[in-house]
Design a protein that fits this description.
A: about 260 residues; alpha/beta; 2 domains; six-stranded mixed β-sheet; four-stranded antiparallel β-sheet; 11 helices; B: about 350 residues; two-stranded antiparallel ribbon; 15 helices; 4 strands
Chain lengths: ~260, ~350
């Protein structure tokens, strides 16, 4: 396959079935480098199926997932993670018994070395490595403003803070693209504002493109560079927030009749 | 929480277990006391402590496999047995003890990987059953092998350890040997949580689905959890062999495996301090029961009270200890100790 310039992550004609249900019907999405790309759609439209195909949990029946010009359709989730496909989860998927810093440090696992004996004996080389990666973890802690909670067990934290730790762990894996599954769900408006700022910073300071599945339309319209709208497993629209806002099919399918009346 | 006025310049200093000079001096004092103890104590106490140190090493193995990685293991006693038979066989071939003990650890680790391979694919009850199978298979395999290999039903004699021509097979020598390896086990168990593998073990324990997506090879980490835990069991087994001077399959029963788990739970499953407190507490209770029942036996001159009743009684007491721990202090004596320490430091202000 030929690499497409400017496209980091691409879904090409993905199709997926669960029994009689067609979750995805030839869905194509192209995420441009340095952009925030939102995927929206009503419940059951196939957003999560698309995300799980991208991160490797589901294997599409046909079509391909292309990452930096490379076909990764056959790669398993840990392999995709090591290649630079980071993701955060819907709900809370952090490690509750560990501190915020340790949660973030687990993200560096594939970049670090040392197994059973280095761990048990705490060899000088292992200590030096700990020093280096602790400093890197602190950079992420500083970026996400988690300084107050670095030594707090994540299980004792508020929902918003846990989501931030989840994001920090994803950043530690050194992603070249970040997939976020409903990051705003269940958050207070204040927490949403903070997280939206972090997502913009991830794009601007780290230059990492973000794929965002989100229900909060205000947030999506505010921060996205490009939006893909799914309905019944099909792409019904793709464009900038302004184009999406005025697209009649989207208004009918997603934003509802009230929007038309207004 | 730590007292005010303590700051760190490196992350390694922050990760230290003993943060202040005073705490390091206290540990040194404890070490000197334990090393000098044989000069003042009788053989009975020495024997008890030696056995407690050996038990502590085995329980530290469980701390890694069960406490840190969350992989239930009801076969620790069988793994200790593998280490003991390896040590007995090697000592019979004239191998010195300082080679026998690491070799026993590695052989036990290798055997544990055999069982961890299927175990890394199952969870919960199924994993418990898989390890139970390892425990049940251990005596069957030993008895089925030719007598000349591992002694079969009779067992194997163990050649006493020697260092520079001095026998370590005396109560003093065994005590020091067990003390040194218990210290090494403790050192390792306090190190592991602060390492790459330690965090991966905890991650698999807390949420293995997320761990897999975040680049942690879950199956491999589970196997390493069993391997690391079995290294401790192998050392404990080799020391048991030297301590008993004769190994038979009947010394490594499922009851011992359950006792190990009980000690871990009572002491605190999440803290490397837990095994020390758990082993100390349960050994104390066990010995108390033994002394009590011995007195009863003598007073009734062998009436209705016999060894079977002592065994049943101690099992009931262990069960009670575990139940009480699970209901009132699921994080174990280690957490209780932590609470007391924090309260003491904050006094007269309330905690939280």
């Amino acid at each position: 396959m030929t690499p497409t310039l400017g496209i980091t992550l691409e879904a090409r004609n993905l199709s997926l079935r669960f029994g009689a249900i067609e979750a995805l019907k030839s869905v194509s999405v192209a995420v441009e480098a340095g952009s925030i790309h939102a995927v929206i759609g009503p419940n059951g439209a196939g957003k999560s199926s698309l995300l799980n195909c991208l991160s490797g949990f589901y294997h599409p029946w046909s079509g391909a997932v292309v990452f930096n010009g490379q076909d990764i359709s056959a790669a398993h989730p840990p392999v995709r993670s090591a290649m630079g496909l980071g993701r955060t989860f819907q709900g809370i998927q952090t490690y509750p018994s560990m501190t915020a810093r340790d949660n973030i440090l687990t993200g560096f696992h594939s970049q670090m070395t040392g197994g059973v004996f280095a761990g048990l004996l705490r060899t000088p080389a292992h200590v030096r490595q700990e020093e280096v990666f602790s400093a890197k973890a602190e950079e992420i802690i500083e970026f996400l403003e988690l300084e107050q909670s670095r030594h707090l067990a994540v299980g004792d934290m508020s929902y918003g803070l846990r989501k931030r730790v989840d994001l920090g762990r994803a950043l530690a894996t050194g992603p070249k693209v970040l997939i976020m599954d409903e990051p705003m769900a269940g958050m207070s408006p204040e927490e949403k504002g903070d997280l939206a700022r972090f997502i913009l910073d991830i794009r601007d300071h780290f230059g990492i493109p973000v794929v965002l599945v989100e229900h909060d339309m205000d947030v999506v319209m505010d921060i996205s560079d490009r939006i893909t709208v799914l309905e019944f497993g099909q792409v019904i629209a793709d464009g900038t927030p302004d184009q999406i806002r005025s697209d009649e099919r989207v208004i009918a399918a997603y934003l509802g009749q009230a929007e038309v009346a207004a | 929480m730590r007292p005010t006025g303590i700051f760190f310049k490196t992350y390694a200093a922050e990760a230290r277990v003993l943060e202040t000079r005073r705490s390091r001096l206290w540990l040194l004092a404890l070490g000197v006391m334990l090393v000098a103890l044989p000069l003042f104590s009788g053989p009975w106490l020495l024997g008890q402590l030696t056995y407690a140190f050996i038990t502590l090493i085995a329980v530290y193995g469980l701390f890694v496999t069960v406490g840190m990685a969350g992989q239930i293991n009801i076969a620790q006693s069988a793994f200790v047995g593998v280490g003991a038979f390896t040590a007995a066989k090697l000592s019979g071939l004239g191998v010195p003890f300082w080679l026998v003990i690491p070799a026993a650890a590695l052989v036990t680790g290798a055997v544990s990987v055999l069982f961890a391979l299927p175990a890394s694919r199952v969870k919960g009850f199924y994993l418990a059953l898989t390890t139970l199978a390892a425990q049940i298979m251990f005596p069957i395999v030993i008895l089925a092998l030719p007598m000349s290999w591992l002694g079969g039903l009779v067992g194997l004699p163990v050649v006493s350890p020697e260092l520079f021509g001095l026998s370590l097979g005396t109560p003093h020598g065994l005590y020091w040997l067990a003390l040194v390896f218990a210290a090494v086990a403790m050192f390792c168990a306090f190190n592991l949580p602060r390492s790459r593998l330690g965090r991966a073990l905890r991650a698999v324990h807390d949420n293995d689905t997320a761990a897999g997506v975040m680049g942690i090879p879950v199956a491999r980490i589970k196997i390493e959890a069993f391997f690391a835990g079995a290294l401790f069991a192998g050392v404990a087994g080799a020391l048991t062999a030297y301590y008993l001077q004769f190994v038979t399959v009947s010394s490594f029963t499922i009851f011992a495996s359950v006792w190990y788990l009980g000690m871990l739970i009572v002491g605190g499953i999440n803290s490397p301090l837990g095994p020390i407190l758990g082993v100390a507490f349960i050994t104390f209770i066990q010995e108390g029961l033994h002394t009590m029942s011995n007195m009863l036996l003598q007073s009734e001159s062998g009436g209705s009270f016999d060894g079977g009743a002592v065994f049943a009684l101690s099992s009931i007491v262990l069960a009670l200890c575990i139940l009480i721990a699970l209901i009132f202090e699921p994080r174990g004596l280690a957490h209780l100790w932590h609470t007391i320490k924090t309260n003491f430091r904050l006094w007269p202000f309330p905690r939280n």
